[in-house]
Amino acid sequence: MKVLIVSTSDRAGGAAVAASRLMDALCSNGVQATMLVRDKLTDDVRVARVSQPKLWQRWAFLWERFVIFCYQHFSRQNLFDIDIANVGCDITAAPEFRDADVVHLHWVNQGMLSLSDIANVVKSGKPVVWTMHDLWPAAAICHLSLGCRRFTAQCGCCRYLPGGGSAGDLSARIWKRKERLYQDSGIAFVACSRWLEKEAKESGLLRHQFLKSIPNPIDTRVFHPIDRAEAREAMSLPMDKHLILFVAQRATNPYKGMNHLIAACRKMADEHPESIDTTAVVVIGQGADEISQELPYRAIALGYVSDEHSMARIYSAADVFVLPSLSENLPNTIMEAMACGLPAVGFRVGGIPEEIDHQRTGYVAAYQDSDDLARGLYWTLFVADRDALGRSAVEKVYRNYSQSAVSVRYTEIYQQLIAQKLTHL
């Protein structure tokens, strides 16, 4: 069986990393998987780049942003929070596409595939799987609903548009295009978390489509526990501190909740002043230096770390991982931390409670409750048996997120779709 995984990138962003890991998982379990991307950032020979010239790809990206910019009344607000998929690359002529038995779409926004390009993929007759890394396939133009429920019926009056949009706004028009695309498409939609599956099943677009949840896989040969002292020495981290670890591609991204982490750390420092001299916060991500001075504890800003083996050592060196995101599907970082035996703390939102078993593998705090986040950090660092939490975390990863466990579930879907196609020949 030959599976073509289609993604905007093979490395930039959590969805791209998850797609690459799925390729590895499938290949490790007897499926011939390759990738087709616009932005190739690795030297993996299994990853092909779309054939369109770089100038065209740049134009496609800029044209979509320009159209959105116009609809935003020439404001940059929400410019990169929505996608309309009005331009992209036709991949159906690519040799990798022609050779595939199954086409597996992942995150294909920002000029990779337009809605017309996806329609061409469907018209090719090949079985199509679409893994949802956020809500965009189930809504009109947004990736995060931010509490809006219009997607359960029909989008329009979109809060991402100036003045809250209107009944016939851009979101309503894109909704109609997706509605036509999905009708009798046979696309098998897969959500990365049970939470997203539940949300998607309520969508007016996907209510009658094939839909199930399968988590992202993780390579436990890379992410596994390493001796804490050895890991700290390797990464030049202090031996005499309790280390809180925060990781995000962009540390200043407001949706990742750094303001809640700062508030929680201040709360913990106020209530437990003895922790000030014994605790440090390791911040990884672009812009880490910008926020480090706001923390009451010593801050160690490591910037952006792309090497997975270095990340595994950093996870193993820390005492607790925290991700106070305001919206998440099934974050890779929590999975990576747990695979390295690191207890995790996060808010009760999205798929985070599926990953963290409260007070068994970490602590699940009330949503946007910085005080409860502080309680979770203190409990994990100074009250709980951290080694026991870490062992439970590793066991859960092996049981639910290992390459073999995830690849088997996807292979079943591929085989089911191929069988259905054969019966209709």
Please give a structural write-up:
By secondary structure, this protein is α/β, with parallel strands linked by helices. The chain folds into two domains: 2-217 and 403-423, Glycogen Phosphorylase B (Rossmann fold, 3-Layer(aba) Sandwich), CATH 3.40.50.2000; 228-400, Rossmann fold (3-Layer(aba) Sandwich), CATH 3.40.50.2000. The protein has 15 helices and 13 strands. Helix 7 (228-234) crosses helix 10. It starts with a strand and ends with a helix.
Task: Summarize the entry for a quick read.
Helix 9 (288-292) links the parallel strand 9 and strand 10 (298-303). This protein is of the alpha/beta class and 425 residues long. It folds into two domains: 2-217 and 403-423, Rossmann fold, CATH 3.40.50; 228-400, 3-Layer(aba) Sandwich (Rossmann fold), CATH 3.40.50.2000.
Keywords:
425 residues, alpha/beta, Rossmann fold, 2 domains, 7-stranded parallel β-sheet, 6-stranded parallel β-sheet, 15 helices, 13 strands
